[in-house]
Every structure is written in structure tokens, then in C-alpha cells.
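Per-record layout

source: Flavobacterium shii
name: DUF2853 family protein
length: 113
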Amino acid sequence: MSARDELIVKYAADLKDKCGVTPNMDLLTKVTIGCGPSIYNADAATVAGTQKSELETVKNNFLIKKLGLADSTALDAGIDAVLEKYGRSNKNKYRAVVYYLLTLHFKKESVYK
């Protein structure tokens, strides 16, 4: 099993155990691949949910650039809802899991077809 496959299994477990979501493994794999090499860097692999600059990065680089959404307060509300679902007290919020949940939240699975 490759390092990426091991991470995907870890992300799937997080989705199931911490978010109560049964992941679509095909979509999760595509979202994880879309994160690129950041998944192998301990700092970049997680989202700092309390850091304003980090949340702006998620909004600008993922929601607007990758998913093609227009900038609005709905994006901030979506990020907030996903972080709430993942659990604010959860120290390690994996970027791939957050992006997967955001993709579902905004119904943009078609971006990964």
C-alpha cells in the first residue's frame, strides 16, 4: 500500500468516526490527489480552524479557484459548518477531509468527475 493509499484510509476513518459520514472512496481519492504533495507535510496536511489566514486560504484557493464558487458570505458559512461537523476541539483537521466535506457541502462533486 502506498503512502497516499494509507492516508486515504486514515481520512476515510476520520470521516466515519469524527464526522459520521460514510465516504465515497472514489471522490475522497480524487480530492486527496487534488491536494498534491501537501498531504505529506505535517503542517500543510492539516487545517488550522482558528487561524483566519488559513481559513482565507481554504476559501480562496479551494472554494473559489478549485470549485469555481463566487466569493460570498455563504463560503464562510460553509467553512464554519464543515469545521463544526469535523469537531472544533479535534486538533488534527486533515485538509483532504475538510476539502471533501466542503465539496459535498457545496454540491460540487462534478468538479472531480
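summary: Residues 8 and 29 are 7 Å apart (CA to CA). The chain is about 60% helix and 0% strand.
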